[in-house]
Amino acid sequence: MDLLQQFINGLTLGSLYAMIAIGYTMVYGILRLINFAHGDVMMVGCYAAWFGAAQFGLPWWVSLPVAMALTALLGVAIDQGAYRPLRRAPRISALITAIGVSFFLENLGLVIFGGRPKAFARPEIFNQIYQWGELRVLSLSVWTPVITALILAGLLLVIYRTRVGMAMRAVSRDISTVELMGVDSNRIVALTFALGSALAAAGGVFWAMKYPQLNPLLGVLPGLKAFVAAVLGGIGNVAGAMLGGLILGLAEIMLVALMPDLAGYRDALAFVLLIGILLFRPTGIMGEKLPE
Prior knowledge:
Layout: H1 2-31, H2 38-55, H3 60-83, H4 91-113, E1 118-119, E2 129-132, E3 135-138, H5 139-161, H6 163-173, H7 175-180, H8 185-210, E4 213-214, H9 220-233, H10 238-258, H11 266-280
Antiparallel strand pairs: 1-4, 2-3
Helix pairs in contact: 1-5, 1-8, 1-9, 1-10, 2-3, 2-4, 2-8, 2-9, 3-8, 5-6, 6-8, 9-10, 9-11, 10-11
């Protein structure tokens, strides 16, 4: 029974990683850019939801979509202001810019929100306890994987069943040829940033519900682990990001459950997995080699 309890905890944590990792993998799939500011975009989404609920009294089901919309706009602004001017520049320039944007958002958060942690109230619907015999599960742990699966299904529907999704897949293959065919690649890239940032906000809000304490650096470690999850599943592959997040979350929780003496190395496990996947399968579990 205890093992089942830990499995549910791992599934919940993995779902959070997956939600954040999908944004990473979408941007990489289009631009071949590791957007290291993604975790900090998640942090902004958390604060936006917190302000909506705590300062303006909005219910969570209103503050969450508002936070996602605002964060989507932030993602577009970052793309247009920081990455678009470097679209034809060497990739290392865009990577350095991504790191700079990350530091900028973190320090701007410290200036605006302050360094003192803020409590994030968990809505009552996610605070209930479900009990089956000796198994006790927080309702948040049940809803998080369900909502993540619905988000993934909706995203896959957009990617594979709409004209916008077709354009995204075409841009990810050959941006120059797509532009010759009359597709506005900058619009498609901006839309990709908007979707990825909105998903980061959703993941961040559920992360804040699970670990209800906000600070301007809260996105650093989850962002890095989501990057590991994206690489593990196959960066550039949306379903792979989901799979990588679930594997990473389950591995972390099971490490602590089965080998409690190694609990202090829980965060290190993600980076051990990253080294291993880069050594033995650089394309990830579901990744494929793409033309340069």
